[in-house]
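Check the record.
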Amino acid sequence: MKAFVIARMNVVRLLRDRLGLFFVFALPIVIVIVFGLAFGGGARARIGIVDSDRSALSAELVSSIEQSAGTVEVRTYGSLEELRDEVGSSFVQIGLAIPAGYGDQLRSAASPQLQFVTQASTVSLALRPVLDEAVQREAGLFRAARYAAMTKGISFDQALADARREQAQIA
């Protein structure tokens, strides 16, 4: 019972002291707003893509990345240098460069080397799985299409279309 009397007296004193009210309620809110505006997280994470190949297969990879990205903004760039500048200025957190000849290399059963452009940051580490998932999903389709083309004696494009159709039915 004595604890309630003491607590009530402290609340009454606090309500009478306007300067105390300011430091207890108003100042923390002001500090949160100021730091939120200064360091706020209002910006969206961005993934940059350079498609040097501009083939149907590279366009499908870009589309797959856009679908995997969810709320992450995906931007396309005309050159690798432009992408590196954007990553260097932290406007884009991570980038992917699709090399020229990507589609031809896939059709010939080669493994094209995709180039990741990033800075060491927690945001880019968090975005890397988005790119990896899309690249691995497309790589799985290409492996299935190559296998089907060899075993069934059909063209790679036909086998890839069949693999995409099967994937759409599963999803």
Observations:
- The beta strands are 46-51, 73-77, 94-98, 115-118.
